[in-house]
Each structure stands twice: as C-alpha cells, then as structure tokens.
Batch of 3 targets.
Target 1
Amino acid sequence: MMDPQIERKLIEIMRVIHESDKPIGARAIADELNNRGYDIGERAVRYHLRILDERGFTRKHGYAGRTLTELGESEMNDALIGDRFGFVISRIEEMAFRTTFNPETGDGVVPVNISYFDKDDFETVVDVVSYTAHAGYMISSKVKIIEENEEFIYLPPGKIGIATVCSVTFDGLLLKAGIPVEPSYGGILQIENRKPVRFLDLISYSGTSIDPIQIFMKRKPTSVLEVLEKGEGKILANVRQINYSAYEKVIETIKKAEKAGLGGCFPSGEIDESLFGAPVEIGKFGIAIVDGINGICALEETGIEIETNPVSTIMEYKTMSEI
C-alpha cells in the first residue's frame, strides 16, 4: 500500500496533466503544483511521473511531455473523490485570481473556454457563435480561432479550436475591485420574451466534484437556438452571491465591464431575496451571469460535434478578435 501523501500527489499531477491543452513536461507540472500550494520540485515530479508511467496512467510524447491515457483519465475520476469536493470552486478562485484584465485600458488576461471542432464546420461555428454572442448570451463577442500551429495550445489532428471568454472573468474583475465573490450555482435559466424568468435546474458548486456546466452540457438540456430565434427557451447561466455592503461597487464594476465589451450579467437581485428562484443567503444578494459557452451549446443543437474544456486557461484579451 503506497503512502497516502504520495497517492494524493499522483492524483494532483494527473489533474494538472488533464487540465493541460497539450502534452506537459515535469518542469511545467512542478510550477503549477507550486501555484497550488504543493512544495514539490521538478526532480520529485519526475519520480512520480515514472510511477504513473508504470501504472499505465500516463503516456510520454518525447520531449513535449505527457498526457493521460484512457486508463489514467478513468483512475483520476474515480480516485480520492472526497478530495475533489470543493476542487471546482478552487479552480474558479484560481482563475479569478489570475485574471488581470483592466476594462479601462483593455490590457490583461481573461479566463477562456477552449472548444475543438472539425475544420469542415468552421463557417457554421463562426456564424452560430457570432449570432449567440451579439444577441447577448455570451460574455463577449471576441474570440480567438486556434489553428494547428498555435504555440501554447495542443490541438487534435484535423481540428480547429475556438476560445471564448469565460464567465469567471467577472469573478476576477470583482476580486480585483476588492469584492469577495462566492460561486454558488450553475444552472438552466428559462428565458421568456428575451428576459430571464426562473432557474429550472441548479447544481451547487460546493456540493459536486464535477463542474455543473459540464454536467448540463452532457445532458444537453438547452434550447439556445430557440432563444435566439423566438426569444423563448433555456440557456446556461451561473449564480454568484455577494455581501450586501458591496452592492453599489458591484454595479459600478459591471458597468465598467460592459463599456469594455464584457456583458452577460442580468440585473442584480435584491438583498436577502432569491434570484430567479435560486436561494440566496441572508445578508447577501445574487447576480446571474450567462455562461460563456452558450454559443457552443447552440452549435451542439445543430448537430455539430464539438468538445469543450470550460475554464480551460487564461489568454490576453487583446489577442482575441471580434467574431
């Protein structure tokens, strides 16, 4: 029986590899682990990687680094499930902290989702994502098209990628403004007459080991195309809770973001009151934010096969272009 501390380090290394968009090496893994509070050097990482190789959980790609095997993905999903509760929130908090975007100058990085699709679907992808973004059901109408020669993002052969701005960007903007934000729920929001009415389903971020948005995407419960065409249907959205004392500052921060082209926040709820049916704690108010991958959901509704990694990485906002 291996030391539990070693097992936890192995799982954390597997998480880092899983979250990478391309093969990742020992040095980069060590740097990321240090960012997450693990005091582990490159040599120690190499030792743990050899164990993972021997177990068949990782695959080496020459000097490029490692990816997880199918067995490794399965093991990571099954192992230490208790440790994974709260991990989704930790990921959101990490990406919010790494957000440096300044709405007044346009400089800095934002969290993005990365989606992959066949090259033959390129025109449809651009049309549908553009339609969704300009209708106000995504965070930004700026995206980045990722092709095979992209230096920092790995693409499967024959695929093109698209980076869309993630809703965690608002967590980052509020955090930089000195406002603590609590990620509460991911859910399905009913739209009627092009206005939000009620949440039909909610999953708490604190009570799951899987990103709620990924769960809903797999269930395919949205009808984003109907929202775009008829003003009636279901979209993905998130709920954040904030202390009542920050109410005015939140409104000010959201307005600054909107001037910079970042939208998707519905009107804030009242203090101590539920938000479109989503519970809100006493002394707090809620804000609902559209999810940045609603355009991707619309694409899936057309029958296009597309793979998405929500809250995938960070990207310089100025490198993104209007779609």
Target 2
Amino acid sequence: MTVQIPLRAEALAPERLGEAHIHEVRPDLAYLRTAIVNVAMIGPAGAGDRGWVLVDTGVTGAREAIVAAAAARFGEGARPAAIVQTHGHFDHVGALEALSEGWDVPVLAHPLEHPFLDGREAYPPPDTAADGGIMPKLAPLFPRSPVDVSRRLKPLGDDGGIEELPGWRWLHTPGHTPGHVSLWREGDRTLLAGDAVITTGQESAYEVAAQAPEMHGPPRYFTPDWNSAARSVRLLAALEPDLLVTGHGRAVAGPAMRGALRRLADGFEAIAPPERLRRAAGGAS
C-alpha cells in the first residue's frame, strides 16, 4: 500500500552544467541524483570556495560526478564549508572518505551515527523478507561496513543549529538509523528529509528507475526501528513543509505533497512497515 502524490515534481528540468545534471529547487538549494540516491548542495550558484554545504555523498563512485556538479554550480575548485551526513548507509557515504579527504572539510553528523562513520560499528543485517520488490532480496549484497572519517568527524550541535548553515536546523529523525537527521529551514518551509520519508518506492527496481513521485516511509529493508520511524514521520508532517527533498526520489512541493505526508503520518503503521509487521499489528489490535 502506498500513498500517491498527484503532483509533478517541483524540481526544475535538469540543467546541463558542465558534465553534471543539477536540479535547482531554490535559488540556494540544488540536488544531484547519483544512481539510486540524491545528494544536496546548499548555497547560491557562484558561492565559491567554502560558500556552500554538501548534504550526503552518494554511492561508491559518485566522487567525480559530485566534484563536477560542485564546480559547475559554485566555481572550479570550490569546496564546501562542511559535509552534513543525514546518516551513514552505504548509498549516502559512498564518496565521503574521498571527498572529505580531498576537500579537507569537516563531516557533521549526529553523535548516535558516529559509530558507523568512524569505523567502529556495522549496521544490522537487512530485512530480506520485506515486501515491495526485488531490492530487499538483493540487500545482503549491499555494503554494511562502516566508513572511517574519524579525523574529520564532528557532532552536530546540541541546540539544533548548524554554524555553516545559517537559517537551517537539524532534527533528530531516527528509525531508519539511530542517528538519522533531517534539515529544516523555517523561513521558506524547506525540508531535506534524508530517508525518514522518501518519494519513490525503494523496494522496487522498477519504481527506483521510473522515479514516479509517491510518498513512502523509509526503505523497508534497512529500517530496524519502526516505532521511532513513525514518530519521526509525524514530526516532519507537523512542520507542514512547502518543499520536500528526500534521499530517494524527486523533490515535491505544495498542498498535495503536504496532504500525502499527513496521510502517511496518520496511517503510518498500516502503510509503511513490511507487510508481516502490518499484519502482526493488525492482529494485536
């Protein structure tokens, strides 16, 4: 069961800037799709060196595409002021070690996510019984080992602020991972949700390829804590965002998006978890 979004993606048609396809959704916010996952760039075009922030670092092999996109948008050789990691799953940290080293920039993440970013701890095994498509069956092939950026790793501040991102706040949105965070800008109601919610069915290879906008909870096969995931989605829905950029799928905006997000939040337990958990919850009620 999915919640459909009857809305075209808010993102502009991809701009060909150099070798990169960049979706600009605000004058100071753009995202780049690397294979199955998005990375976001916060900062106005032409911001120059240290004038912007990168959010997540895509899949393994994404380094060249991200560097090309950064050069096209901000200027040749422009480095970010920091890299913010929403979480440490393989498809969000694929280029993290190479980029943080090459750019010599800090990596900011929630302290609960640090064990997966400093080489100490691997994520739990995927749920191969999760329904929705072939991806859960392939999930054991996906890397779970931690990366190690301990030399540059720093905790996000206790007050929710981010020094390198004036006007933005980080929100703890666990469930998909213990230290998962989303980014929120109240001024224009812009939400970068990471994988707390996504706008494509990540379990289905067809849906991953088609990118038809739909509202979903976090990827089922890599979400161990569904109670926390439900609370996180309800927190995000209560913000009533105007623009939503997620880790997977296209950016979406407006009343239809907000309505779909509310419906997901209100009916989360009957919509988002794997079918066997939904059946168990129904039988227990």
Target 3
Amino acid sequence: MPHAAHILLAAARDAERGRLAVMLADHGYRVSAAASSLTAVALADELHPDVVMFASSLLESDVAQATEALKAGARGRATGVVVIAPQPSESARCRSVLAGADDVIEGRFSDAVLLARLRPLCRLATMQAELDRRVQTARSLGLPVAAAATGGDTDSPCRVMLVARPGSAPERQVRDALYGGFDVSVESDPYRAGAVVADERFDAMVLSADRPQTAEPVLYLASHLRNNPSLFNLPVMMLHGDGVFADDGDPYRYGASIALGLPFEKSALAAGIRVLVRRQRQRWNIRGAYRAIHDAIRPGSEIELYPADFLRLHLDAAVEQAQREGRHLSVALFSLRNLGDIERKYFSDAGELLMAQAASWIASLVRTEDLVARLGDDEICVVLPDTTIEECRQVTQRIVAILSASDFNLTEEVMQPIRIWVDGACAAVSTADTPETLVSRARESLF
C-alpha cells in the first residue's frame, strides 16, 4: 500500500516504540524502527527516510549527537529530525536546535498534535526529493544545473511578526525571549498584521491568544495565512492561555505550526521560532532552486511551463521512484478544447497566448513541487509527487472550475474577454504503470 512518508522511529523502550509505530502506520506512514539513536543514524544512510523521530526514552545527549551526525551526512538537509522531549533542560533544548533538529516536541501532547507537527517536515522532504529529480532531469538534457544548497540558515536577522495586545504579558515576554538575533515587528490588530505580511517578507509569525475573546481573530489569521499561497506557508507559533482552546489540536487545525501554552520558558519560545525560521528559509531556498532550473530550460520565460521533452524524462524518474519506494504519485491532465476555434476567430498566436495564461494560472493553483508541463498542442500535464488520487481529483476539479469560469484577455487590441473550454482528468501510478500508460489512463478519462 502506498504511504504518505517514511518515518524512521528510534526509541529505547519497546512499549514506546511499538505504540508510536502502530499509530503512525495507522495514519498511512511507512515506519522503520531502531532501538537506539546510533542505530537510527546507520539506518538513515541505508533507508533514506523522510523524517527521523527520536522518542523520549533516548538519552538527550545521544539524541543531540545523532542529530548532528544526521545533518552532517550527504542527505542530512533532506531528512527532517523530530525530537520528542517531554521535559527538556534549557541546555538540552538549545543543543538539539543547534545540532539541526527540525522540531522539538515538548510537554504532553496528543497523537493529533504529533501528526500535525510531522506534516510540514514530510512536505519539505517531498520538495527536496522533487528538486533532486529536476536537477537530474535537467542534467540528462545536457543543461549545466548545479544542485542547490537548500538548508535554511538563521545567521542573518530573523524577521518575526508578533500579534498581541499592547502592553500584555505575552507581548513583553516574547520581546524579551527574542531579544538579540531577531527583528520583531508588533501589531495589535490581526487584520492589519495580515496585510503587513502580505506586503513584506517575514520568516515567522507569533500569535497570542491569552484570553478566550482574543482566540477568534488570531485563529482566523492563522487560517488565512495557511490558505494564502502567496505567503508560502508562513509558519505560525500560537501562544495560548488555559481554557482558550477546547483541546491541544485546535491551534493546528487552524494552521498553527507550533502551539505553546502560557506562560512559557524563554528558551522554548526562542528555540521554536528558530526552527520555524530555518524551515521557512529552507522552503524559499528550494523554491529559488526550482526557479533556477526552469530559467536554465526556458531562459527569459516568466511562465513555469516545462517543455514536453523535460516532462517525458522527468516522469520516467518519478514513476520509477514511486514504484520502487511505494510512494503516491498522481498526474492531472487539462485539455483546452477550443484553442483552435479561438485562433481561427482571432489570429494564429491566440491559442499560444491562452495556453501560456492558463499554464500560469495552473502553476499558481498547485504546490511549488508540482511540475506543470506542456504535453500536446492543447494539453497541460501536472505531476504531483506524494499525492493520492483523491487529493489529485480535488485539485483537478478546483482548477477546472476556476479556469472555466474566468475571463482571459488576448491583447489590448482584442477587447472581448475570452472563455476557455477546459476538461480535466487525473490518474495515480500503479505497480504496472509506465509513464505512457499513466498519462493514457488520465487522457482516457477526459472523454
């Protein structure tokens, strides 16, 4: 059965290792297990997991050393590290973060919280794996594309937006905790804060819900940030007082990356913000590397539409890896049915102009790691790694609905708005598929 991601779980106690392994497997993850942090490091080199999870039964010093070893390896930047530490000392917490841990989960937490904290790290692993494939495809076409450094450094000042009541204890405490190394901007109005982060680039946001009446606007803002693709998943730390939320999973359901109860330890907040900043900068680095690859393939083109020859080679590698590792892989196909009619009615390049506009819209409606490519005269194919057929159908239907209901403009001379007739379909890879059969099954369902 295909899985969402591969988790390498290290725990010294059999009971803890067994419980976590069963829970993760029940939620669709492929799980490998290790009884020590040293064994986990050795297995990571062999298995290439998406995330290595160090459970609480391991010694803190061993976990820090193992994290350093993992991050120093060739694939260290591509593998997320999660440290479960119910009651870490300040030195242990700081050491884990300095060693390169991508998340430190503290205190008592539910399975829902653990799963929510895993998702962005699995997403980063998908982004990195897709970047590696694109580099290899570009090189196969003879393009001199260098593998990009995709780590997220925190050496330069970290820009953080804090949303809190003026003069409140959380505002003072956050300022104190982030003094030195952080550039903190403060807004009291969540709606104003949302407008500011839309215009300026920030590395992370801290939202304070210290009282029940402050919860609704900050939850709205967290949800808005998560659903706005132009903000590129700006990470959010949610500070909350007792009784503000019904359970510990509420902040995560609304888009929080980390939830921290009030009052908090200064080092816990600083460590949490540092891992969020590092994660966000890694995302931007990967995104920039994608752009560099596309610029090498199509110099001067602002539209991230890959050519058909790139798609064919890339899909070969993606299908082979998905089948070998048991991963999800889906393709979405969009047929623009009336391009020929539009060219006959207006001018010969009208179809190409509309194809470019449609591709630009599609690229803005899918994830950064989803490859948008030209397939035929009137077809656009999107390759979605680590995506189930159900998820792909939702994406495809949303894009078809948006494109079909939108007006497009050809040139300033053609004043009449144009409507495109769009059909969409999708297919998920099976063990017997080739790239050709995968695309053919999607195309057949168009009709």
